Amino acid sequence: MRIHAQASRQRGAVLLVVLVFSIMATLLVVTNLKDNLVQERLAGNFQKQLNARYTAEQGMYESYNRLKAKLKTHPKSTLENLKDALPGRANGKVRGSHFETRNHRIPAPGLLMLASRGHHLEGAAGLNVAFALQAIPGNEIYEDAVVACDGISLKGSGTIDSYDSGKGAYGDNNKGRNANVGTISANADVILDGHSPIEGNVRATGDVSLKGSSPVSGNVHASGDVIISSGSGLRVDGNIRNGGDFSLNGGIVSGSVHTNGNALMDWSTEISSGELLYGGQGTFRDDEDKVFEGADHRVNPNVPEVATSSCDPINMPEVMAKLAGTFNDGPLAVAANDVLDLTPLGSSHENTGNGKGKGKGGGPIPPMTPRKADVLGDKAPVYRFDSLNMSSNGIINISGGDVTLIVDGDFSMAGDNKLNIAEDSSLTIIVGGKVSLGAGAKVTAQKEGIRDNGKIAMSLYSAYDGADGITISGATPIYAAMYAPLTDVKLSGSGALYGAVRGKTISASGGSGIHYDEALGLADLGEDHGKPPLLALRDWLWL
């Protein structure tokens, strides 16, 4: 009996222990469930907050892109104008999210404060950012060595390369590969013939033809065809991108080739990189080039077209029209033994022999006083002539500061004559007629490049809209930044051009090389022709 009672008590104790452990396990499970629920809620809130923050960043990113896009199309926009481009309220990338850009204010001159608020379900976050418009020095007109509206033809043996006049004169220790060549009106071709090495990039809104042995050290980009004639050696050291057909009839291309059209590689040709993509048919003569028939090469790369731009952003007809009917010093002829000094304050004339120089009315060259006039966006001392003719042994000296000459008719330098520009001065010539610089013409700037005030040492602007408006046939070097968007520019002879040239069409033959002065890209051509400002980040704060 006792044994039975003792066993019953033992079983009861065991049941009690099991019950206690069961209750403890249940409490532990319930506690864990509550903890998990709290953690899930915390994680959900954190995720909502994180998504809200991402959405606020998206709103600021959209705002930044819209401001940049407006600056590109309207580079003269003020901060007040830019605010109109902001997106306001829009949906975010995450489902159920949206952002708002608001509280736009200008706390200080040159600063724009933007506030972007991101929302995702119950989550919210804010991002405040301060932007500033940062001026970029320079201009967009002389960024390249040779720019033509309707076509470029470079023949002969003249090298096209670059240098920086800010570092001194052109020479072995001052040579660069930034002499870019290009066309800007639709369907305008670039033809490189003879042996005219290009130390830079080539771009064409039409076709690019490399004839003779003219190598290109940079890239080639064409909206149309790229045709490389028969020959040997290196033809293009960079990459080729074009929208038409590609034909390599001789020589080597070092970089990659992407062409939207057909691809042809003739005998003994080479693409060193081994990268060729084409969207049309492929023709490959050499067995080792048959590899390009593979499917991985027959892929249309969808090369974009070369961008077009305004041929005459300065609007030369308007420049001349604004000066119509104003003062005029008549025709000017600087003859043998004439020395004419022009300064911003006035002129002086000396003749050391039996000179036949003539001024207004056909008499001797008189003292002249320039008038202040608004030219190319700048108030400058201006001399104005019906025509300007310099014959053999005539000299014009520019000194004392910035001088502007306006020539309504033709400007010619024939024979051995000199146009000298002092180190502290600059000369701007605006011509309505033809410009002819003959074999003995010497245009010399004692200091090439840009003056401290941003002026170019020697600038030549042409408003002539007929054929062959500028011809340079000299055997001596000339420093000038030439702008002739309405007429043809012809460079011949053996004299090199230091500076830059922009024309309707441009042709160079003989040994006349072009040495692009990279400093010209930093010249001050007025607010209307400067580079668009940069939208710079100044500060930010998360809320």
What would you say this structure looks like, in words?
Keywords: Membrane, Transmembrane, Transmembrane helix. The chain has 543 residues and is of the alpha/beta class. It is 15% helix and 37% strand. It has three helices and 40 strands. It has a 27-stranded mixed β-sheet that branches. A five-stranded antiparallel β-sheet has the order 1-2-3-4-40. The longest helix is centred in the N-terminal third of the chain and has 72 residues, at 2-73. The mean pLDDT is 87.
Would you summarize the structure shown here?
This is DUF7305 domain-containing protein. With 543 residues, the chain is of the alpha/beta class.
Structural key phrases:
flat, 27-stranded mixed β-sheet, 5-stranded antiparallel β-sheet, 543 residues, alpha/beta
Radius of gyration: 36 Å
Main sheet record: 27 strands, mixed
How large is the share of residues in beta strands? Answer: 35-45%
Strand count: 40
On the 0 to 100 scale, the average pLDDT is: 87
Low-confidence stretches: none
| Helical percentage | 10-25%
What is the overall shape? flat
Q: Compute the number of helices.
A: 3
Helices and strands in order:
Layout: H1 2-73, H2 79-82, E1 89-91, E2 97-105, E3 111-120, E4 123-134, E5 146-154, E6 160-163, E7 181-183, E8 189-192, E9 202-204, E10 208-210, E11 220-222, E12 226-228, E13 234-236, E14 240-242, E15 246-248, E16 251-253, E17 257-259, E18 263-265, E19 269-271, E20 276-278, E21 282-284, H3 316-322, E22 332-334, E23 338-342, E24 347-351, E25 371-375, E26 378-385, E27 388-390, E28 395-398, E29 402-407, E30 411-413, E31 418-421, E32 426-431, E33 435-437, E34 442-445, E35 458-462, E36 470-472, E37 478-491, E38 497-508, E39 514-517, E40 534-542
Parallel strand pairs: 5-7, 5-8, 5-38, 6-39, 7-9, 8-10, 9-11, 10-12, 11-14, 12-15, 13-16, 14-17, 15-18, 16-19, 17-20, 18-21, 22-27, 23-28, 26-29, 27-30, 28-31, 29-32, 30-33, 31-34, 32-35, 33-36, 35-37, 36-37, 37-38, 38-39
Antiparallel strand pairs: 1-2, 2-3, 3-4, 4-40, 23-24, 25-26
